[in-house]
Write a structure and sequence with these properties.
Radius of gyration of chain B: 28 Å
Strand order of the largest sheet of chain B: 7-8-9-10-11-1-2-3-4-5-6-12
Strand content of chain B: 25-35%
Strand content of chain A: under 5%
Shape of chain B: extended
Oligomer: heterodimer
Radius of gyration of chain A: 20 Å
Number of helices of chain B: 12
Structural class of chain B: alpha+beta
Distance between the termini of chain A: 80 Å
Chain lengths: 173, 427
């Protein structure tokens, strides 16, 4: 005789209240910002959208959302908001990125780095920024971007090599 | 083996992002001892690594205030949670594609027994000759008894089949019946998943070849009905109908050219399958039926194994249907056609019920294997009966399903509490 019993499928810790959400903001804000910065390539826009994402997340979140699902979800919210933002911006006016005057900033390595990051392809920029914002954890990035770990490593490698080339190019100018 | 510096630059980039294993690391070290250029490259990347960390620290620092403002806003009651109307919205919106590969797996099980019709090397009456001789076959397969059934579009090249489904237009399945492997591509998410279809599914398809061969022998021996002439889609057709135990096949071919117009296949109590729109020997790009992951796609590592469909899968899947879709009551009917129709709703229910991706994949795979198990009952000549409609999940007294394997004296009986017992008599 073979007896089969029914397994419970739903039994996870949940996010219960505002205090929980606060701790999520503290924990994930940097990652949300990294994604926004990666996509929008402008810190001011990225900050606005990251805030909007977190607030939207709070408003829309059910008390039954499970903690382990929060990160991929909020990053998706942020990504969608970034796309909306880019769409609106494109409609409003041609994209003019805020830039410091090169003559003032040329000597500033950080400026070069920021510009070089901006020149990277979005597919490389997002994982690169997530890597540094998220405690250098490629597995988390893979999970959040819904791609394989190997693919993240490959993109990071490509990003680092391209970034170096761009930095060299800038210093040689 | 020696590499050029470009290869070592890759290793250096991996090193600074922590992706280099020990072996590669020592290979790199060895190279760096002799190569000043690469040594310089490594130092530069390490320097940039520090810069990147500083850059991130700077941004974190800059945004510290805004993070606090955000927390203040949340605490100010200005923003309230909307717990009701949007309770599950994020689940509905987000992982739309996560179960889709699994759903495709489930639908592959529908095709057990159908594929060999196109790939077998049997000889048949003239009307099936083009099917058997063709190097490539393209066709549409209508599944189900209703008008609104699923349509599978198939491109068959030897043992390879490329399949698209009308109800999941972003999914492509490439099957290799020789190796028992399937590649599922999600064109929207640009992801790829490999699925093992060895064992039961392959066995089922082989069995079906035997059935067709037997059927053809029967046909050649005169055990087939000549259905005479008819008209389909304005074309004059001639038809033959063959039956072998539980299996039936009807072929309608153009009366003049003998080109097959409609082939209907039915196995046991299963749903009928109609094959139409045949094209033979059309040139097919090999890449379309390749099992390699196309460029631009990411291979998802998921354990999808269809090779071992068991009674336990079947029984647990009865529980999944009841729990997820029918308010803890067993459905009125089970089987491939029901699964096909209800699959989109089950996928939705899995999302709504807050199951994780992993749980969803596990449950979906159980349902998929369950369907293979159920189909194999017919293919293997077992008797079975389902009587679960309306029975409550957990009812230990009421029988919901029984089956008797071919050549077995005993019956396996499934009760409403999903327990399974042996019985010497037919329930």
């Amino acid at each position: 005789m073979n007896n089969c019993s029914k397994q419970p499928y739903i039994n996870r810790p949940e996010i219960n209240d505002r205090a929980d959400y606060e701790s999520l903001v503290t924990k994930y804000y940097a990652q949300v910002l990294a994604v926004c910065l990666g996509i929008l390539n402008n810190i001011h826009d990225a900050e606005d959208v990251a805030q909007e994402a977190m607030l939207k997340g709070y408003q829309k979140m059910s008390s039954r959302i499970q903690q382990e699902q929060f990160r991929p979800w909020i990053l998706r919210v942020a990504r969608n908001l970034c796309i909306d933002h880019l769409r609106k911006k494109k409609r409003r006016q041609p994209v003019v990125e805020e830039q410091s005057t090169p003559s003032q900033q040329d000597a500033d390595t950080m400026y070069d780095l920021q510009q070089a990051i901006g020149q990277l392809d979005k597919e490389l920029r997002v994982p690169l920024l997530m890597y540094y914002f998220d405690g250098r954890n490629a597995r988390n990035i893979a999970e959040n971007l819904n791609v394989s770990h190997a693919s993240v490593c490959q993109r990071l490698r490509k990003a680092r090599r391209q970034l170096h080339d761009l930095m060299v190019e800038r210093t040689e100018k | 083996m020696s590499y050029d510096c470009d290869h070592y630059k890759d290793l250096i980039a991996d090193l600074v992002t922590g992706a280099l294993d020990e072996t590669q690391s020592s290979i790199l070290d060895e190279h760096l001892r002799d190569c000043e250029k690469c040594q310089g490259y490594k130092e530069a990347l390490e320097q940039e690594d520090k810069l990147l960390s500083q850059y991130v620290d700077m941004i974190n620092d800059k945004t510290k205030d805004s993070r606090q403002k955000l927390i203040d806003k949340i605490n100010s009651n200005q923003y309230k949670q909307n717990n009701n109307s949007l309770k599950w919205r994020y689940i509905m919106k987000s992982p739309v594609t996560k179960f889709s590969a699994v759903a495709a797996v489930i639908l592959i099980a529908l095709s057990v027994g159908v594929i060999p019709l196109l790939t077998g090397s049997v000889t048949f009456a003239k009307v099936v000759q083009p099917i058997l001789d063709a190097k490539t076959v393209i066709l549409d397969m209508n599944i189900g008894s209703g008008q609104d059934g699923l349509v599978m579009h198939e491109v068959v090249v030897d043992s390879r089949i490329r399949r698209t489904l009308s109800n999941m237009p972003n999914l492509v399945q490439v099957l290799d019946l020789d190796s028992g492997k399937m590649l599922v591509l999600d064109e929207e998410a640009r992801t790829a998943v490999y699925v093992e279809i060895q064992g039961t599914v392959q066995e089922g398809t082989k069995h079906y070849v035997k059935f067709l061969r037997q059927l053809i022998r029967n046909v050649q021996g005169g055990e087939v009905d000549d259905l005479g002439k008819d008209v389909i889609d304005g074309r004059e057709v001639i038809g033959y109908h063959g039956k072998n135990n539980e299996e039936e096949v009807t072929i309608w071919a153009d009366a003049k050219t003998l080109h097959p117009v409609l082939v209907e296949v039915k196995i046991g109590k299963g749903f009928p399958t109609k094959l139409r729109n045949f094209k033979f020997n059309e040139p097919v790009d090999k890449a379309l039926v390749s099992l390699d992951v196309p460029d631009g796609y990411t291979l998802k590592e998921q354990n999808m194994d269809m090779s071992n469909a068991t009674e336990d899968d079947f029984v647990q899947s009865l529980g999944i249907w009841a729990e997820m879709l029918y308010d803890n009551t067993f459905p009125e009917e089970i089987g491939s056609e029901m699964t096909m129709k209800m699959m989109p709703r089950l996928v939705e229910a899995l999302k709504l019920k807050n199951v994780t991706e992993q749980q969803g994949v596990e449950m979906s795979m159980k349902v998929a294997r369950s369907m293979v198990f159920h189909q194999m009952l017919d293919v293997r000549g077992a008797k079975w009966n389902y009587s679960g409609g309306g029975v409550k999940l957990g009812d230990a007294e009421t029988i919901v399903f029984w089956y008797q394997p071919k050549d077995s004296q005993a019956y396996r009986v499934v009760y409403g509490d999903l327990s399974v017992k042996d019985s010497d008599t037919q329930p």
